[in-house]
């Protein structure tokens, strides 16, 4: 495994549209697939038909969320994985909503309940290289 720096991690995230939002639900860890875009160092995700996620972030004002995406070949096991941890909030600014809404499609093909921005605080990533085993 080769550790990636912040810029490499964000560049790789920007190359894919689907990842997993990681959160706490009923005091247990949970993850759900969501679409995303990377803009200005932030991760913008669509809440899809997930009012519980929107409600959680809205109720807390700022929530800590994780976001993980990867691209790994199932046969060679080569690829990469990136994990972002940061504060999340609902995007309320009409200009930002108009800009990002067409870019963030719900992976379930439903209308996004809201757009959520994750401000990365901790970003880790690994490139999975070919093994000599």
From TrEMBL:
InterPro entries: Pyridox_Oxase-rel (IPR024747), Split_barrel_FMN-bd (IPR012349). Its EC number is 1.-.-.-. GO terms for molecular function: oxidoreductase activity. It is an enzyme of class 1 (oxidoreductase). The keyword Kinase does not apply. SUPFAM superfamilies: FMN-binding split barrel (SSF50475). It comes from the Bacteria. Keywords: Oxidoreductase. The keyword Oxidoreductase applies. This is Pyridoxamine 5'-phosphate oxidase family protein. It comes from Nocardia jiangxiensis.
